[in-house]
Write a structure and sequence with these properties.
The complex is a heterodimer of chains A (78) and B (407). Chain A has 78 residues and is of the alpha+beta class. Chain A is 53% helix and 15% strand. Chain A has one domain. Chain A has a two-stranded antiparallel ribbon. Chain A is elongated. With 407 residues, chain B is an alpha/beta fold. Chain B folds into 4 domains: 124 residues, OB fold (Dihydrolipoamide Acetyltransferase, E2P) (Beta Barrel), CATH 2.40.50; 154 residues, Succinyl-CoA synthetase domains (Rossmann fold, 3-Layer(aba) Sandwich), CATH 3.40.50; 58 residues; 40 residues, no CATH class. In chain B, 41% of the residues lie in helices and 21% in strands. Chain B has a 5-stranded mixed β-barrel. The chains are: A alpha+beta (78), B alpha/beta (407). The interface between A and B is large, with 42 and 49 residues.
């Protein structure tokens, strides 16, 4: 789980599915173009996530009321 | 005090009890009479003070754990036996109940259970003499049980996510294991979020903490994959990862679990039940997240395939269009040929009907100077020139002057 609606895994899997469809199915040209654009968009997003990110370390804390929160750990990291 | 008592009772023992009745006579020291309780208590004191706590080895028989949690058994060798008890508090610490006939070493106090007058050994610690002792026994029993339940089945192992965004870590917040994991993930997949659920990883209660941490992750699906473990240590240090509560928490986790219990020889039960077992925390981190270069290559490959397949798609359309053109041209050609054929046939028919055909059969047509057909006698005048049209041309002619003789 993450705060973005789509995980990296889901995005990459979506691109792979698009490639598979494009490679195997006989599609209408419009459909092929639409898929291509969707795929490129997803790839761009994945690359943005991968480039921008810096390792974040959080600590899981169970609250008294039974809820669980993750809060950033200061100075953690290598 | 008991020494004192012993001394006195020793002296007392030499004196015969005075008869009859109570009350001393003639200054003879009155013999001392003890109650049963006092005697038992005395014997108990003597025994306990005379024999400090000690180790005794022997074979366990008739081990029984009562409802109250106390354990009763007999220690024996070839020629003697000793009733023994291990009270709940101490018995709780045992990793497993010893089996019938198991050779053990027990540490405790020889005493007398006054209520029943039993001579017994109150055991505080108990260990099996064999390699690994009771830990080994506990491990093997749990191992068999888990196996019977199918929890060690390789088919239960789930695939790990290829690109986890959140890696859960259950380990000590101060151990080297955490630092190793952070270092590896930062180098390979710095976009990852690491969520640590800090626990102790050894000592009393560590297993319960680890199990609780796993359950926390499970409850909210707070991670895509979980690493649980610690750096290397002795077999005792790693024991928490053989505890049933930990093993079952791993098995029950809805999120795939990588075990990382630094060990050189034996796998822990946690390793056996985890979806992947890594030999060290660093190796676990490497398994958990992909390497950034590999991800980039994969993405590049996908990008190329996307472009290529689109190009193919367009190319296929062009090809189709071209085939359609070919088919159109071919169709049109066939259409024309049919028309041409039909036209030829019609021409033949026309020809049959043509006056030229009559001419070819020997008929001739007289044509006047203006080209009109001379159809009857009235069209001819004496000496009038006209053309006689025959099959291969026309012949100039002239009407004779001789007047017409009768109709």
């Amino acid at each position: 789980m993450s705060e973005s609606p789509q995980t990296l895994e889901a995005r990459i899997a979506a691109v792979e599915a698009i490639v598979a469809r494009l490679e195997s199915d006989r599609l209408e040209l419009e459909e092929a173009l639409r898929l291509f654009e969707a795929g490129v968009g997803q790839l761009r997003e994945v690359e943005r996530v991968i480039r921008a990110a810096e390792l974040r370390v959080e600590r899981l804390i169970a609250e008294a009321d039974g809820s669980v929160v993750a809060e950033p750990v200061d100075g953690a990291g290598p | 005090m008991s020494g004192d008592l012993f001394g006195r009772s020793g002296r007392d023992a030499r004196a015969r009890p005075a008869a009859p009745g109570p009350g001393g006579q003639r200054g003879v020291p009155r013999p001392r009479v003890l109650t049963v309780s006092a005697a038992a208590s005395l014997a108990k004191d003597v025994l306990e003070s005379g024999m400090p706590p000690l180790w005794i080895e022997g074979e366990v028989t008739g081990w029984k754990r009562s409802a109250s949690g106390h354990c009763y058994f007999t220690l024996r060798d070839r020629t003697a036996q000793l009733r023994s008890v291990m009270f709940r508090l101490e018995a709780q610490q045992l990793p497993a109940d010893p089996g019938e006939g198991m050779e053990v070493r027990a540490f405790g106090t020889l005493t007398i259970f006054e209520k029943r007058g039993d001579f017994q050994f109150v055991v505080r610690e108990l260990e099996a003499s064999g390699a690994g002792g009771l830990w080994r026994v506990a491990l093997e029993r749990l191992h068999r049980r888990l196996e019977a339940e199918g929890l060690l089945d390789a088919r239960r192992k789930r695939p790990l996510p290829r690109f986890p965004q959140v890696v859960g870590v259950v380990t000590s917040p101060v151990g080297a294991a955490l630092q190793d994991i952070l270092r590896v993930v930062a180098a390979r997949a710095p976009w990852t979020r690491i969520v640590l659920s800090p626990t102790r990883v050894q000592g009393e209660g560590a297993g319960a903490e680890v199990a609780r941490a796993l359950a926390l992750f499970a409850r909210r699906r707070l991670a895509d994959v979980i690493i649980v473990g610690r750096g290397g240590g002795s077999a005792e240090d790693l024991w928490a990862f053989n505890e049933e509560i930990v093993v079952r928490a791993i098995a029950a986790s809805p999120v795939p679990v990588i075990s990382a219990v630094g060990h050189e020889i034996d796998l822990t039960l946690s390793d056996l039940v985890a979806d992947f077992s890594a030999p060290t925390p660093s190796a676990a981190a490497e398994k958990a997240v992909p390497d950034r270069d590999a991800v980039s290559r994969h993405l590049g490959g996908l990008r190329e395939r996307l472009a290529l397949s689109l190009r193919r798609s367009v190319e296929a359309r062009r090809q189709s269009a071209s085939w359609a053109g070919d088919r159109l041209r071919a169709g049109a050609g066939r259409f024309l040929a049919r028309r041409r054929e039909r036209a030829g046939m019609l021409a033949g028919k026309l020809d049959a009907l043509s006056p030229l055909a009559a001419l070819r059969r020997g008929f001739a047509v007289p044509l006047g100077a203006d080209g009109t057909v001379l159809r009857g006698k009235a069209d001819f005048e004496p000496a009038m020139p006209f053309d006689l049209r025959v099959a291969d041309g026309s012949v100039p002619c002239r009407v004779e002057d001789r007047p017409e003789s009768g109709p």
